[in-house]
Amino acid sequence: MSIAEPIAELDETCPALFRDAPAGVEFNKLRKRLIRQVRETLDVYGMVRPGTKWLVALSGGKDSYGLLAVLLDLKWRGLLPVELLACNLDQGQPNFPKHILPEFLERNGIAHRIEYQDTYSIVTDKLPVGATYCSLCSRLRRGHLYRVAREEGCSALVLGHHREDILETFFMNFFHGGKLAAMPPKLLNDEGDVEVLRPLAMCAEADLARFAEALEFPIIPCDLCGSQDGLQRNAMKAMLDDFERKMPGRKDVMIRALGNINPSHMLDPKLFDFATLAAKGTQ
């Protein structure tokens, strides 16, 4: 089936989490847009190898719920020939509602694994009060997810990072890291045995928020990094939102630019051989 072909409507055989989905035109447009964007990303970056198994990280936030829903939709349509296993890493955060995700997954008949690892205590013990927890928390979480992927025979760890996450990371590296780097849609972990996939790379955060609201996903807020104000990422988010207000469509232009790089028009001699570049007759 071509990516350009129409996407069929939901029916009584669809995944359980869509059974009470709104029947209106607006929701159908939203769902189809997300499906098209994910299908294009899967195709362009060569993410799908039939017969493999994916570990889909589920945090309880809108993005990971949306990721899981779109992948299940594609699998139901026969467009994603891989096995999906949802995985939530319970990191021991205070007041974390442990029952919500298992109940949601069981109610909707979704294969899953709940893994408990108290990374919260490690992060709060190692970092002073008021420090930015995100980096250490992320590294610890990713390490456990790689381990679970290996234990479950999964070739890929699938994450719910969207367009804004990628743009914010790019500008954080640009302004604070002195380098041009973002979150690639596909990469290998350091050991080279687990792929990291980001099928939502072209999807807008606002679309995922509307999608989550329409499907009434039981959102779980983060009580660690999600509760900290003034992070650099928040500043990048505000800047991008300001661009979008003043120049609608800029985010789409910027995300396309990250996939349309001309090395000879940058300044990195590792990417382009400037030293041997010379006019004819001067070589």
Question: What percent of the residues sit in helical stretches (DSSP H or I)?
Answer: 40-55%
Structural class: alpha/beta
- Gyration radius, in Å: 20 Å
Total count of strands: 6
Determine the number of helices (DSSP H or I, runs of at least 4 residues): 9
Q: Widest sheet: strand order?
A: 3-2-1-4-6-5
Low-confidence parts: 226-230
Task: Give, in order, the helices and strands.
Answer: HEHEHEHHEHEEHHH
Q: Strand-residue fraction? A: 5-15%
The end-to-end span amounts to: 52 Å
* Cα shape: globular
Relevant terms:
283 residues; alpha/beta; six-stranded mixed beta sheet; 9 helices; globular
How would you portray this structure in words?
This protein has 283 residues and is α/β, with parallel strands linked by helices. 42% of the residues lie in helices and 10% in strands. The protein has 9 helices and 6 strands, in the order H-E-H-E-H-E-H-H-E-H-E-E-H-H-H. Strands 3-2-1-4-6-5 form a 6-stranded mixed sheet, sandwiched between helices. The longest helix is centred in the first third of the chain and has 20 residues, at 25-44. The model is unreliable at 226-230 (pLDDT under 50).
